[in-house]
Amino acid sequence: MKAVAPGNTILIIDDNTDTIRLLSTMVRDQGRVLFATSGAAGLELARLQRPQLILLDVEMQGMDGFAVNERIRQDPALRSSAVIFVTAQSSPEAEISCLDAGAVDFIPKPLNAAVVQARVRTHLRLQSALAALDELANQDGLTGLYNRRYFDRQLAAEFARHRRHQLPLGLALIDVDDFKLFNDRYGHQRGDACLEEVAESLRDGARRPGELAARYGGEEFVVLLPNTTPDAMVRYGDWLCRRIAALGIPHPSASAAPHVTASVGLYALIPSDGDTAPAMLHAADMALYAAKRAGRNRSVLAGGTVADMVA
């Protein structure tokens, strides 16, 4: 049997501990196995662990498998988790109901080890292939950072999560100063190389769990910083400006310094019910323009609430 690539996480959600033990034994060589004995606990564990595959019992007390699956399908954080229903119902109608609900497959009871292992192995391989394709689709072709489409999706998910848990979320918009003049002087090939170096600095600086650097468009970049207060954002913005300046890329035509620099707009807040992710982006964008008006090669923190900033 061909080994499945390491790093797979399989979550079993079932209110029968005997079934959990049996399934765990059958699939434990195909990845890390987690389990939950109720739908609510399974959803919470899924959000924390982001499993590649969820083996979900249909007939559970309280929240049944269909209700749990519906929550999974509605949660942006779990969009990449595949669900296989485990069910004692073997009629064609029951099978169709499972597939119509969005499951990738179903496993009938009583459990057959060879069938369970084959279906789990097949869908883990599919998940790995889909993840690779998704990574390519979400990547900026020049810099290798995430692209704007992926960033917008992650911002919406993180904004909702931080609002739900009342945690501070930070955002930094970065613009390479006088980049048109750089391209005019050195040409687009040198311009692309400059953007790649700046992108590498951003990638190196986004190391904490959940931090995300993306190319926002042209010479603009954006960094999402979970669990980050306004004071921490100020320190991050100052560090970022120093780091990009320290690249030492010559730029004699620039207005702020004879080397490449960047202007940074910062914003951080604990999202409330009246706030939105687009409004947060707009607030950071206004702070970026304030940094440019103040002379470039600096960061500016937007103040007040989102509503204040976009009024």
Q: How are the SSEs placed, and which strands pair?
A:
Layout: E1 9-13, H1 17-27, E2 32-36, H2 39-49, E3 53-57, H3 65-74, E4 82-87, H4 92-100, E5 105-108, H5 113-137, H6 148-165, E6 169-176, H7 179-186, H8 188-205, E7 212-217, E8 220-226, H9 230-245, E9 262-269, H10 277-293, E10 299-301, H11 306-310
Parallel strand pairs: 1-2, 1-3, 3-4, 4-5, 9-10
Antiparallel strand pairs: 6-8, 6-9, 7-8
Helix pairs in contact: 2-3, 7-8
Protein name: diguanylate cyclase
GO molecular function: diguanylate cyclase activity
Pfam family, one: GGDEF
Sheet having the most strands: 5 strands, parallel
Instruction: Indicate the multimeric state.
Output: single chain
User: How much strand content do the residues show?
Assistant: 15-25%
Number of strands: 10
Mean pLDDT metric:
91
The ordered string of helix (H) and strand (E) elements is EHEHEHEHEHHEHHEEHEHEH
Describe this protein's structure.
It is a single chain. The radius of gyration is 24 Å and the shape is elongated. The protein is of the alpha/beta class and 311 residues long. A five-stranded parallel β-sheet has the order 2-1-3-4-5, with helices on both faces. A five-stranded mixed β-sheet has the order 7-8-6-9-10, sandwiched between helices. The chain has eleven helices and ten strands.
